[in-house]
């Protein structure tokens, strides 16, 4: 895998560590599915160049919150979002915002790898093409290669770029989806349980990748695996029954959390 | 703990650790008490019993460590559970050391006996041992109840033991200066006193570990110290005793 050197990653992170800057700010975010309220006044800020993990039992609202960050909830009938979410200084629920452009800035990787039924090359090139990011074929080739490099997939697929993306293994497909998300140079990448359909080796590769991507992107990941959250993230937010229970440094969260509900959940004591 | 794990066998594994720690504590306590009694009553048979019991603690520590490692590998414990297991490993090591100190005291019984130790010398040691054993007993009770306040209190009381140890040190030095025939038994008794004083330190370490297990943080501030034996010199004593 062609990755940034460890030193380069650390250097990039050091530069950012000195002052906390928030990439996205969620203020009093509530979400309703019809009559049913799924999120209650969540205040959660996403730090730049940081991996933020969202954890909590099923139905706690963590995926709902994730989806508010690039307005994926817009596609669900009867879904209503209140409160304010900003990306840098832009209110992403401002009617003037172009949702397609928003999703280019805030990309998403889903639970099940979902490559398009096209070639590996086309899977990656699709986004940059519709956003007009490449003028010539050479530009596009460069974007495809860089994206596959960043996703740690290049060496495995460089000789068969024209083969179908669906012919790859599950782990490779998921990294292809990450390459596809990376190709449009997003600022934030949302990941909704990106490893839950992968075996441990493929999971480790994706986790390694998340660590590398952090230097260039801000990442928010929903995961059911507490160990994964502990391994990949620097900040962790715990949701329960639609409320944000606690947000803390990951190291603190998994050794000595402040909230009893967090404690019970991470220790497998939820009765 | 407030509630039980969803996986009940996980609870069993943690209970196994705390049960074995309590057993180790009981054995260590008994060994120390017996070793001091053997010393004071010059009972070689009892001393031999203490020496042979040390292997029980060695084995128990090994079994606790093995179980702890398997549990960590299997359950990937978090937060208080992880502290519970790490605490068990540390406390087992402390108790194993307490057993070693009891054994060392027991080994000296023969030497002290053959040199003909005067009875009165042992009295100060008995008092020191009483205090150290009380510390050990209380810390084991605190382990059972996880009372943070009591753990702190035990930690703050170690200076009593240190103070008595220092005065015992002076006393033994005085006896040696009075009559060179006392040097052999008194040197052994000095080591015994040091052993017992160390038991107090181990009890304090255990108290700190329990505090950490319960709260996730280390108790604040320096632990009190009143062991000034490092600066006691014979010349000063000679002046004082004249």
UniProtKB/TrEMBL annotation, chain A:
InterPro entries: AAA+_ATPase (IPR003593), ABC_transporter-like_ATP-bd (IPR003439), ABC_transporter-like_CS (IPR017871), P-loop_NTPase (IPR027417), PstB-like (IPR005670). GO terms for molecular function: ATP binding; ATP hydrolysis activity; phosphate transmembrane transporter activity. Residues 24-266 form the ABC transporter domain. Transmembrane segments: none annotated. The keyword Transport applies. Keywords: ATP-binding, Nucleotide-binding, Phosphate transport, Transport. SMART domains: AAA. GO terms for biological process: phosphate ion transmembrane transport. One of its GO terms (cellular component) is membrane. Belongs to the ABC transporter superfamily. NCBIfam families: 3a0107s01c2 (TIGR00972). This is Phosphate ABC transporter ATP-binding protein (PhoT family).
UniProtKB/TrEMBL annotation, chain B:
Residues 21-109, 125-209 form the PhoU domain. Its main location: cytoplasm. It comes from the Bacteria. SUPFAM superfamilies: PhoU-like (SSF109755). GO terms for biological process: intracellular phosphate ion homeostasis; negative regulation of phosphate metabolic process; phosphate ion transport. GO terms for cellular component: cytoplasm. InterPro entries: PhoU (IPR028366), PhoU-like_sf (IPR038078), PhoU_dom (IPR026022). Keywords: Cytoplasm, Phosphate transport, Transport. The keyword Cytoplasm applies. The keyword Cytoplasm applies. Homodimer. Belongs to the PhoU family. Plays a role in the regulation of phosphate uptake. PANTHER family: PHOSPHATE-SPECIFIC TRANSPORT SYSTEM ACCESSORY PROTEIN PHOU (PTHR42930:SF3). This is Phosphate-specific transport system accessory protein PhoU. The lineage of its organism: Bacteria, Pseudomonadati, Pseudomonadota, Alphaproteobacteria, Hyphomicrobiales.
């Amino acid at each position: 895998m062609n990755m940034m050197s460890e030193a380069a990653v650390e250097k990039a992170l050091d530069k950012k560590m000195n002052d906390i800057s928030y990439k996205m700010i969620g203020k009093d975010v509530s979400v309703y599915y019809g009559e049913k309220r799924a999120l209650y006044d969540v205040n959660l800020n996403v730090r730049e160049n940081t991996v933020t993990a969202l954890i909590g039992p099923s139905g706690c609202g963590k995926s709902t919150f994730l989806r508010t960050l690039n307005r994926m909830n817009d596609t669900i009938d009867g879904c209503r979002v209140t409160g304010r979410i900003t990306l840098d200084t832009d209110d992403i629920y401002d009617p003037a915002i172009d949702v397609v452009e928003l999703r280019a800035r805030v990309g998403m990787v889903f639970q099940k790898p979902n490559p398009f039924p096209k070639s590996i090359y086309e899977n990656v090139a699709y986004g940059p093409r519709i956003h007009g990011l490449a003028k010539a074929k050479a530009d596009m080739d460069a974007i495809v290669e860089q994206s596959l490099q960043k996703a740690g997939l290049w060496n495995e697929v460089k000789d068969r770029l024209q083969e179908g993306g669906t012919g790859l293994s599950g782990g490779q497909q998921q990294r292809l989806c990450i390459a596809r998300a990376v190709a449009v140079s997003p600022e934030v990448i949302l990941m909704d349980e990106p490893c839950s359909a992968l075996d441990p080796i493929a999971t480790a590769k994706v986790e390694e990748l998340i660590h590398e991507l952090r230097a260039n992107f801000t990442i928010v990941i929903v995961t059911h695996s507490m160990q994964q959250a502990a391994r990949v993230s620097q900040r962790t937010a715990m949701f329960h029954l639609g409320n944000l229970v606690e947000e803390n440094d990951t190291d603190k969260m998994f050794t000595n959390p402040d909230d009893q509900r967090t404690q019970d959940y991470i220790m497998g004591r939820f009765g | 703990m407030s509630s039980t794990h969803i996986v009940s066998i996980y609870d069993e594994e943690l209970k196994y650790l705390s049960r074995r720690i309590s057993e180790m504590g009981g054995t260590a306590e008994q060994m120390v008490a017996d070793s001091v009694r053997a010393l004071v009553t010059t009972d070689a048979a009892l001393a031999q019993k203490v020496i042979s019991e040390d292997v029980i603690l060695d084995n128990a520590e090994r079994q606790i460590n093995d179980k702890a490692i398997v549990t960590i590998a299997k359950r990937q414990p978090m937060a208080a559970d992880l502290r519970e297991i790490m605490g068990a490993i540390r406390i087992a090591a402390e108790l194993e050391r307490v057993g070693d100190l009891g054994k060392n005291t027991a080994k000296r019984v023969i030497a002290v006996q053959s040199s003909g130790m005067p009875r009165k010398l042992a009295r100060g040691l008995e008092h020191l041992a009483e205090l150290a054993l009380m510390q050990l007993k209380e810390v084991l009770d605190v382990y059972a109840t996880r009372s943070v306040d009591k753990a702190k209190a035990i930690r703050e009381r170690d200076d009593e033991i240190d103070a008595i140890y220092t005065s015992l040190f002076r006393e033994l030095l005085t006896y040696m200066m009075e009559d060179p025939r006392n040097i052999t038994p008194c040197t052994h008794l000095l080591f015994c006193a040091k052993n017992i004083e160390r038991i107090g330190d181990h009890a304090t370490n255990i108290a700190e570990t329990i505090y950490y297990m319960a709260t996730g943080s280390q108790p604040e501030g320096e632990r009190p110290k009143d062991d000034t034996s490092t600066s006691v010199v014979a010349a000063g004593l000679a002046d004082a005793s004249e």
